[in-house]
Amino acid sequence: MELSELGWGPWFHDLAGAVCSPGQRWARVTAVDRGWYVIRNEEGEVAARTTGRFLNATGSTMDMPCVGDWVRVSYDSENSASIHAVLPRKSFLHRKSAGKNSEMQMIAANIDVAFIVQSCHFDFNVARLERYLVMAGEGHVQSVLILTKTDLVSSEALELLIAAIRGAGIGTRIIALSNVTGAGLEQIRELMGPGKTYCLLGSSGVGKSTLINRLTGQETLKTARVSDSGEGRHTTVRRQLIVLEQGAMFVDTPGMREFGLFAGSEGMGESFDDIRELALRCRFANCGHTNEPGCAVVPALKGGELLPEHYGNYMKLTKESESNVTAYAEKRKKGRPGTRAGQGPIKPPKK
Ligand SMILES: Nc1nc2c(ncn2[C@@H]2O[C@H](COP(=O)(O)OP(=O)(O)OP(=O)(O)O)[C@@H](O)[C@H]2O)c(=O)[nH]1
Ligand SMILES: [Mg+2]
Ligand SMILES: [Zn+2]
Questions:
Q1: Which of 27, 106, 217, 306 could form a disulfide with 41 if both were Cys (CB 3.0 to 4.6 A apart)?
Q2: Which residue ranges make up each domain of the chain?
């Protein structure tokens, strides 16, 4: 296996050259489990831990390795490695973590397409779809909506759901899928490209792991029946990156317990398709759309293509999560005198 088969390309290569040390290699994180990592490269998959030095220099959980990250490693033995650095992320998916604290949590990094999965049978919620779309857009990740379990609803019901999405002004591609009959699988296969990474997002029990099993043609992942009320059981417990035979990669995630990304914005029901499109063209994936160089949103606002109120609502949605990150980073800095300054996240390069 070559690194390019794991998604390595010129974007990463250009960055990697400047910071690589002799005796160290690049590898991709394929799983994370309480302080342990699984990394993969030409040599195969091995367990890894971060070095103490890396931990000391890391100010925020956001900068810790996550699934999909490219990390610089050295081998301690044939089957264990140490992680020395994380390469800047080309794109990412993050959310506010479950619970009351203000921590942000990285879900996955270097994702090409987010498959936002909702079931037709239960769980369908346009406002939540929109929040996932904003979350993907914020991290420079393209989205595709997947409506699963179409075998459990009539075609009229399915059409109503699609109409509800379009009615809310969401123009994102929709794929209607049944993991049971296989309808829609072909459309998903057609989207998949070698070396590309896809992340499945959505509530517990909607069929994310089942979809991966359908694509691999075997029981790669554990799945479980859900109750008729649609109450999920959280069958998948850790995020992991799976390389399919066709060459595409999938990150399976546990269903989200709480989607607290934008608490207080319930019922906003406004589509931000236009801003998300613009934000994809901003130079930096973590652009705040205020005064960053290369921002594509602000010029549209100044040029009158975006209404100030619409822009304001979008900023309100995204600001909360940002201030959470800042608050958390500050807290960490204060609590850890050993943390060295100037070791924050490396800004992604110009595109
Ligand atoms: N009828 C029907 N059942 C499905 C479909 N897709 C998945 N299921 C069933 O739904 C249940 C839950 O599927 P999973 O794949 O475990 O769901 P998940 O999204 O991975 O859930 P978590 O891992 O908890 O996040 C299983 O019993 C599947 O067989 C579908 O298209 N139609
Ligand atoms: Mg699952
Ligand atoms: Zn911007």
A1: 27
A2: 3-86, 93-262, 273-317
Tens digit of pLDDT for each residue in 174-200? 999 999 999 999 999 999 999 999 999
Tell me the pLDDT tens digit for each residue of 72-95: 999 998 889 999 999 999 999 998
The ligand placed nearest to the CA atom of residue 256 is 1
Q: Is 197 left (phi over 0), alpha (psi -120 to 50) or beta?
A: beta
Query: Rounded to an integer, what distance in angstroms lies between the CA atom of residue 215 and that of residue 212?
Result: 5
Q: To test the ligand 1 pocket, which listed residue (152, 154, 179) has its Cβ within 8 A of the most ligand atoms?
A: 179
What is the model's pTM?
A: 0.75
Nearest CA to ligand 1 atom 23: 236
Cα 62 to ligand 1 centroid, rounded to whole Å? 30
Mutational test site, ligand 1, from 148, 203, 206, max ligand atoms within 8 Å of CB: 206
CA of 10 to the centre of ligand 2 (A): 32
pLDDT of 288 over the 80 cut: yes
CATH number, domain 273-317: 1.10.40.50
Task: Please report the atom of ligand 1 found closest to the CA of residue 177.
Answer: 31
Query: Which ligand does the CA of 117 lie closest to?
Result: 1
144 against 331, higher pLDDT: 144
- What is the assigned CATH class of domain 3-86? mainly beta
Q: What is the Å distance from ligand 3's center to 97 Cα?
A: 24
Average pLDDT of the chain is 81
pLDDT computed for residue 219 by the predictor: 78
**Interval between CA 199 and ligand 1 midpoint (Å):** 16
For 305-329, what is the mean pLDDT?
Answer: 66
